[in-house]
From TrEMBL, chain A:
GO biological process: amino acid transport
Topology of this chain in the membrane: Multi-pass membrane protein
Cellular compartments annotated: Cell membrane
Protein family per UniProt: Belongs to the binding-protein-dependent transport system permease family. LivHM subfamily.
Pfam families the record matches: BPD_transp_2
Transmembrane segments: 6-29, 61-83, 95-113, 119-139, 151-173, 193-217, 248-273, 279-306, 318-338
Name of protein: Branched-chain amino acid ABC transporter permease
UniProt xrefs under InterPro entries: ABC_transp_permease (IPR001851), BCAA_transport_permease (IPR052157)
TrEMBL record, chain B:
Domain of life: Bacteria
PANTHER family: BLR7848 PROTEIN, LEUCINE-SPECIFIC-BINDING PROTEIN
Signal as UniProt keyword: yes
SUPFAM superfamilies attached to this UniProt entry: Periplasmic binding protein-like I (SSF53822)
Record domain Leucine-binding protein: where: 26-339
Protein name as annotated: ABC transporter substrate-binding protein
InterPro entries, alphabetized: BCAA_transport, Leu-bd, Peripla_BP_I
Membership in a protein family: Belongs to the leucine-binding protein family.
CDD domains named in the record: PBP1_ABC_RPA1789-like (cd06333)
UniProt xrefs under Pfam families: Peripla_BP_6
Length: 351, 383
């Protein structure tokens, strides 16, 4: 292996790592607030990519139907729960929030689809907006009613949701993949090799978004509320934070992230209805490196996963994924060696 | 939902046909994937068969009845469908299907029940299964050998290989190794990737480092576009060759400019209009295009519907010769039909000219392949 090859692989790995970084942030965000390992995260990203591809070919993305159906379901679930609690006065608000609000991006997408001569940015923004309601709606229907269940139950439900969404993806978008137009053209030449504009864009978005996340969590009331829920749900409730509300916020942010990931990766990789799963799985490896709580460690882990994957594909293309996932073994061993187990802490308190 | 509608539709077609069937004397059973992941191949197969029956609705004055069942891209269902077609519908011949494992499952039922089967995909069978089954598809060896011929003409001395890390990748690689050595061409790399991979940069860097004259890819469908995109990104200037798994509109769409100029083998139906007038399959191919347009109100854009058509042509030829020997619908007729299929001579189809022999699965020769070049999204015949 020459330095040139190593550099190219390194850059390729960083570009992949940037995607895993964003996905990892989303996973950690959802897990820390709701204790759900949100497996369908990648599917939402794939929906964004495939919706964008549908816009580009002048078709109407089937995602519109999905969002509307989910909105209807969520509205019914919400109204039923309000009626059972006898809070009839809140029904119009529920209709507005769960039914009308998600329909707005659908209306936008419906208006934009098939229009020629619109700037590409309109399609991108519409595709992202279109997938933003998916995660909160799915969560409202399937996860919020069991929010207090054990982590394992939540994981199983979220896994079931992944199979449901990827099955719908196959139905909507068919088995063949799509690529979208590049977001950034040109390349930055650095001596003997060059970095494409798209890769720079991916890495830059990862850096900017992580910075925004950091600031939002440290400096804003919403961010502090999210962190408070993450640390202790009951305590947060005692000081007036509504866990259901913060969970909704976390899901919405994560959905937005997934949409961004979708449009960022679609020009460089062929996206299929099920490509999201592998992105989510690798981001999960990164999130595990971060212990599912630490954002900086997740970021580092994501970059490591990207680079290992890239070099792995050079050494042995067929075993690439095996190499990436076997990263988990040393990481888990190290983590289990260095963390103090909660049982021990409980014993100390007892004494 | 769509799946339900499709199965309901398939069932409706089957019942409608069954009603008309009392008067019909010859029965053809087709099991294809009208739903599930293989449906993008299965639907054209069904449409092609409908066109074929419309092209030749009667054989020796007896009407042909077509019964279509959906196997949902599942081998178990395909086997069950085959049994249902044979035992309940009492068909004379079964045909199918889009998936290789599913076609093999059908072939096993064909042998057990002593019913002739005409496969529409490349399958691999051993021993006793060969007694009742033939297939109209081209064997991979034949197709890849055409690519190696082309490489030799283009003056290629070394070639790098990149393909799927699955059975298809192996099949193409083995065929390439078999044909390349006698042609004096050296295969310098054997890189693999998974269908679901996002990037093949690592593998392509290795190929570029080995400095081959040309690259051959062993992929299929949209994931097959990945090496083309990576090679063009890395500035590889030599010719890139593909194989028939890539003759697919989705491949063209996803690979875009990166695959411009690539050459690959295919059945002549893909470029029927461009064939010289004396080409043996040209007339049938153009007839097929017309009848397909009439029956389905849409032009053919794929190679799959043509395989169905050829399967039916082989059946029609054999049935005409078997009919004097036995009455359709009887076990004797099935044996006579099998013997007639296995001794088919120069049956002209859209993909090639078929000559079957007992114990041989494939019946095509060099006339069943042409080399085409992708030029600005169009397949152009390379003479």
């Amino acid at each position: 292996m020459t330095w040139d090859v190593a550099l190219i692989l390194g850059i390729d790995g960083l570009a992949n790592g940037a995607v895993y970084l964003l996905a990892g942030l989303g996973l950690v965000l959802i897990f820390s607030v709701t204790r759900v390992v949100f497996v369908p995260f990648g599917d939402v990203a794939a929906f964004a990519a495939l919706s964008l591809a549908a816009f580009e070919t002048g078709r109407q993305p089937a995602t519109i139907g999905l969002v509307l159906t989910l909105a209807l379901l969520a509205m019914v679930v919400e109204i039923v729960s309000l009626v059972r609690r006898g809070e009839m006065a809140a029904i119009p608000r529920a209709v507005l929030g769960w039914g009308v609000l998600p329909a707005i991006p659908c209306a936008l997408a419906w208006a934009v689809a098939g229009q020629q001569g619109l700037p590409h940015a309109v399609f991108i923004i519409t595709a992202i907006l279109l997938v933003v309601p998916i995660t909160p709606l799915v969560a409202r229907v399937a996860l919020q009613p069991i929010a207090d269940a054990s982590v394992l139950v939540l994981l199983i439900v979220s896994l079931a949701l992944h199979f449901l969404l990827s099955g719908l993806g196959l139905l909507f978008f068919g088995p063949e993949g799509s690529r979208t137009l590049p977001l950034a053209s040109g390349a930055l030449s650095l001596g003997t090799f060059s970095v494409s504009g798209q890769v720079i864009l991916m890495v830059a978005s990862a850096i900017v978004l992580s910075a925004i996340f950091f600031l939002a969590f440290e400096r804003t009331v919403v961010g502090k509320a999210l962190r408070a829920t993450a640390v202790n749900r009951v305590g947060a409730r005692l000081v007036g934070i509504r866990p259901a509300r913060t969970a909704l916020l976390a899901y919405t942010f994560a959905s937005l992230l997934a949409g961004l990931i979708g449009v960022l990766v679609a020009p460089v990789t062929t996206m299929y209805y099920d490509s999201g799963f592998l992105i989510g799985l690798k981001a999960f490896v990164a999130a595990i490196i971060g212990g599912l709580v630490s954002y900086p460690l997740t970021a580092l882990g994501a970059l490591a996963v990207g680079v290992v994957e890239s070099f792995g594909s050079f050494w042995s293309g067929a075993l690439k994924d095996v190499i990436v996932f076997s990263l988990l073994i040393p990481v888990l061993m190290l983590r289990s060696a260095f963390t103090r187990h909660p049982e021990e802490e409980a014993e100390e308190i007892d004494q | 939902m769509k799946r339900l509608v499709r199965s309901a539709l398939g069932a409706a077609i089957a019942f409608a046909m069954a009603g008309a069937a009392l008067a019909a004397d010859l029965k053809v059973g087709l099991s294809v994937s009208l739903s599930g992941p293989n449906s993008s191949l299965g639907v054209p197969y069904a449409k092609g068969m409908q066109a074929a029956v419309a092209y030749k609705p009667e054989i020796n004055g007896k009407k042909v009845q077509l019964i279509v069942l959906d196997d949902g891209s599942d081998p178990t269902t395909a086997g069950r469908n085959a049994r249902k077609l044979i035992e309940e519908e009492k068909v004379d011949v079964i045909m199918g299907t889009s998936g290789v494992p599913a076609a093999i499952a059908m072939a096993q039922v064909a042998r057990e029940t002593k019913t002739p089967m005409i496969g529409l995909t490349p399958i691999s069978l051993q021993g006793a299964d060969l007694e009742w089954t033939v297939t109209v598809a081209q064997p991979t060896d034949l197709m890849v050998a055409a690519v190696v011929d082309r490489m030799k003409k283009d003056g290629v001395k070394t070639v790098g290989y990149i393909g799927f890390s699955d059975a298809w990748g192996d099949l193409v690689y083995n065929a390439l190794m078999k044909a390349a050595e006698p042609a004096g061409i050296k295969v310098v790399t054997n890189e693999r990737y998974a269908r679901s991979d996002a990037s093949v940069t690592g593998q392509v860097l290795k190929i570029v480092a080995a400095r081959p004259d040309a690259v051959m890819t062993g992929g299929a469908g949209t994931p097959g576009a990945l090496p083309y995109l990576a090679l063009s990104e890395r500035g590889f200037k030599g010719p890139v060759y593909g194989q028939h798994g890539l003759i697919n509109a989705d491949f063209v769409r996803v690979s875009g400019k990166a695959a411009n100029g690539t050459q690959m083998p295919t059945g002549p139906i893909i470029v029927a209009e461009q064939l010289p007038n004396n080409y043996p399959t040209k007339k049938v191919a153009l007839d097929f295009r017309d009848v397909f347009q009439k029956v389905n109100n849409a032009p053919t854009t794929d190679a799959y519907s043509a395989y169905s058509f050829d399967g039916y042509m082989v059946f029609a030829d054999a049935a005409a010769r078997a009919m004097p020997k036995a009455e359709p619908g009887t076990p004797q007729f099935r044996v006579a039909l099998r013997d007639a299929i296995m001794s088919a001579k120069e049956v002209v189809g859209t993909h090639g000219v078929y000559n079957f022999k007992q114990g041989q699965l494939y019946g095509v020769d060099e006339r069943a392949r042409v080399i085409v070049k992708l030029e600005n999204g169009q397949w152009k015949l390379v003479p």
